[in-house]
Structure formats: C-alpha cells, structure tokens
Amino acid sequence: MFIQTESTPNPATLKFLPGQTVLEMGTADFPTPDTASASPLATRLFAVDGVTGVFFGTDFVTITKAEEIEWDHIKPSLLGAIMEHFQSGQPVMGADHTATSGHAEHDGEDGAIVSQIKELLDSRVRPAVAQDGGDITFHGFERGVVYLHMQGACAGCPSSTLTLKMGIENLLRHYIPEVTEVRPVA
C-alpha cells in the first residue's frame, strides 16, 4: 500500500491519500480525541502523540497536529497507523455511523434560498475545498447572513477568512441576491 501526502493551505494540517475509499459518502470530522470513538481509524490516529484533529473525506484523511510538533517527527507514525488500519480490514467508521450531507437542516420561510445556498456549496465550493483537505457545510441563514461550519484543513487555516469573504461570499451574493454576508461558526 502506498499512501501519498499533500500539503494544505493550513501548515498545521496534512492530507493523506491512501489510494482507496475512506468514506463512501459525505465527510466525518473529529476535532478532539473525545469525538473519535465512532471511528476505529480516528481512534488509532489520535493515539499518535501530537494529533489534535482528524477529518475524513471520500478518498482522503486530513490530520491536524499541535503547533509545537514537527511533521517530520509524527508523519512516519501516522503513515504506519493508516496502513495498519486499512490492512487490518476494520471499518473506518463504526456500525452505527450513518452518512449525511453535513448540512444543518433549515425550517422556515427561507427554504428556497437555503436550498439554493446548499446547492451552490455542494456543486461549487465543497469540491474545491476537498482538494485542500477540508469541508465547508451550511449551518444557518438569518437576515441575509449565511453561517458556515469549516472542517478539516479549513478549521483554523490562516487563509480561511479570505476564502470565506472573497470567495464564498462573493459567489453566493452573485447567485443569490438575498445573501448579504457569510460568517464562520465554531
């Protein structure tokens, strides 16, 4: 098994490409070790000293490290953990995991606008962000403001604010006049 790695715009995050499917559909975000119990692979990765976040896409694993740790020191352990996991035959996610779109549900009068926002995110934004090892999902829409949740390499990335304001906000405002601003949520 050969695992490729790619740098991301976030220097604390590295994208690992195992050359096979990680998740059949959607994404899975594990921002802390406490959230990893739903995934044998995430649990294994958090066991490596210095790992602070794990994120799964359809064909990649994004890992975030502590600032004081160097990639050269933990990358071999992470490659080994990913390889061991896939060779073990264990599932990436536990049996109780169900794939979702990642977007928050929205009830109310702005349903048509929210549907347009989600469609633009799914068709234009999320594929590009996945290339960088992350994901951006819809969190809410209120009085012209779109709230988005950033995951994987996007969470804590120095260029994420610029991506939100100059990229996503401009895109959404262009296609959906009701959108006035885009803001991140924690």
CATH topology of the largest domain: Ribosomal Protein S8, Chain: A, domain 1
**From N to C, what is the helix and strand string?**
EEEHEEHHEEHE
| Annotation, overall tally of beta strands | 8
Strand content: 15-25%
Q: Globular, elongated, flat, extended or rod-shaped: what is the shape?
A: globular
What is the assigned CATH homologous superfamily of the largest domain? Scaffold protein Nfu/NifU, N-terminal domain
The chain-level structural class is: alpha+beta
Largest sheet: 5 strands, antiparallel
- Return the domain count: 2
Enumerate how many helices there are, as a single number: 4
Corresponding CATH architecture of the largest domain? 2-Layer Sandwich
Indicate the mean pLDDT.
88
Helical content band: 25-40%
Physical arrangement of strands within the biggest beta sheet: 1-2-5-4-3
Identify the CATH class of the largest domain: Alpha Beta
Protein name: Fe-S cluster biogenesis protein NfuA
Domain Scaffold protein Nfu/NifU N-terminal: 3-89
GO molecular function: iron ion binding; iron-sulfur cluster binding
Family: Belongs to the NifU family.
